[in-house]
Specification:
Blueprint (H helix, E strand, L loop, with lengths): L48 E2 L12 E3 L2 H8 L3 H5 L7 E9 L16 E9 L3 H10 L4 H4 L14 E6 L4 E7 L2 E8 L13 H15 L3
Antiparallel strand pairs: 1-3, 2-3, 3-4, 4-7, 5-6, 6-7
Length: about 220
């Protein structure tokens, strides 16, 4: 099964953006917080707002699911990769973002929303061992096996991370604590030079977003 096309990318402008403080006092594997606390809101990371064009995730913290079928319905496929034994996720969060400030964003009134886009998946596992196991096992899944992944030493994201240039976007996977996270960032679609998925500076932007997430785990 395949997931729908990704049109998500993160971009940071100016100084490094940080996530705001979390308010939950219920420990669940994060730094004293919950999976909800890890999901950035509008401009929590500078320039990134929740994409109003996605009816499943707009107007809320994120779309959540605790069962495979629920997640399957949310993302229209590929949930089985996350629930393949022995993986037993306890919660799944999905949010979509848009950034209209990026230099790669074409000024095109016909494009709604304008700007780069980013997709965030956060899976909460019952243990750190399961989070690490899911991170490893996904490399054998069809959606992942066709990409060339590298394990960056800088920046350090989570306990372990990998990144690939899929040809259309920068895709980062990492795990830390009981969480497995995917950040997939896509520049705006448009004629060259606006559509530049291979731009190395955009990889840095994707890592900035991922680093902001991992700092709250």
């Amino acid at each position: 099964m395949t997931r729908p096309g990704f049109r998500f990318f993160c971009v940071m402008v100016g100084s490094a953006a940080l996530l705001v403080g979390c308010g939950s006092n219920t420990p669940s594997g994060g730094a004293g917080g919950t999976i909800q606390d890890l999901i950035p809101g509008n401009n929590t990371i500078t320039g990134w707002t929740i994409d109003p064009g996605n009816s499943k995730t707009a107007g809320q913290v994120a779309a959540f699911g605790t069962a495979e079928q629920t997640v399957e319905n949310l993302i229209d496929g590929a949930a089985a990769d996350f629930f393949a034994p022995p993986a037993t996720p306890t919660n799944f969060a999905w949010q979509n973002y848009v950034n209209v400030t990026l230099p790669d964003a074409p000024v095109d009134p016909a494009q709604t929303p304008q700007g780069a886009t980013l997709k965030l998946y956060v899976l909460q596992m019952p243990s750190e061992a399961q989070a690490a196991g899911l991170y490893t096992s996904l490399l054998s899944a069809n959606l992942y096996v066709g990409n060339t992944w590298t394990d960056p030493t800088t920046p350090a994201v989570g306990t372990k991370s990998r990144v690939t240039n899929s040809g259309t976007d920068w895709w980062i996977n990492f795990y830390k604590g009981v969480y497995y996270v995917e950040v997939r960032m896509t520049p705006s679609f448009g004629p060259a030079p606006n559509y530049t998925p291979n731009d190395a500076s955009l990889e840095t932007v994707a890592f900035t977003f991922a680093t902001a997430i991992t700092s709250k785990i």
